[in-house]
Design goal:
185 residues; L-fuculose-1-phosphate Aldolase; 40% helix; single chain; 8-stranded mixed sheet; alpha+beta
Length: 185
């Protein structure tokens, strides 16, 4: 099981990076395995992950947390409050840029977005990265949505599989691109 999870995380990181959904050192990926979370380490390059870039932590805070991504606090809150099995935190450029001007939600205007994405809540946080406030707001919003956008920061997507979370991350950015292009005309 562990080897499969590690391979999935490494593959997902490559796709996120190749699609431009994260920069060289941004974003993070996690998978829940019973009472444990496999999560990328702080500062890891998602496009070039190795097994050493992924740490296994408990679902509850522990000493091992120091090695994990700074966003562990958000991932952990999502796992504790929802049925998520996998989470991707990305920085899709078009979606982040839209978040500056949209109020409370993003509703795709393309047919694929209507079908697969639906209306996405946008949350605000005074500290939009690795804060308890962010963890509370994102995890609360994820009780009713698989996708949440943090204004000025990025997206958090939960799913039952990492592959599905990856698909939704890619779809979200595609919908944001379509929205941006149509609104420019």
């Amino acid at each position: 099981m562990k080897e499969e999870i590690l391979k999935e995380i490494i593959f997902t990181g490559k796709v996120l990076y190749n699609e431009g959904l994260v920069t060289s050192h941004s974003g993070n990926i996690s998978v829940r395995d019973n009472d444990h979370i496999y999560i990328t380490k702080t500062g890891s390059m998602l496009g070039f992950l190795t097994e050493d870039d992924i740490v296994k932590v408990n679902i509850n805070p522990s000493e091992k947390d120091k090695e994990a991504s700074r966003e562990l606090i958000v991932h952990r809150a999502i796992y504790q409050k929802t049925d998520a099995k996998a989470i991707i935190h990305a920085h899709p450029v078009h979606m982040v840029s839209l978040s500056f001007n949209l109020h409370k939600e993003f509703t795709p205007i393309d047919s694929e977005g209507e079908l697969f994405i639906g209306t996405v809540p946008i949350v605000d946080a005074l500290i939009p990265s690795a804060s308890q406030e962010l963890a509370d707001k994102v995890s609360d919003a994820m009780k009713n949505s698989d996708i949440v956008v943090v204004r000025r920061h990025g997206s958090f997507i939960k799913s039952e599989t990492l592959d599905k979370a990856l698909q939704l991350t890619s779809d979200l950015e595609y919908c944001a691109k379509i929205f941006t292009l149509v609104k420019k005309m």
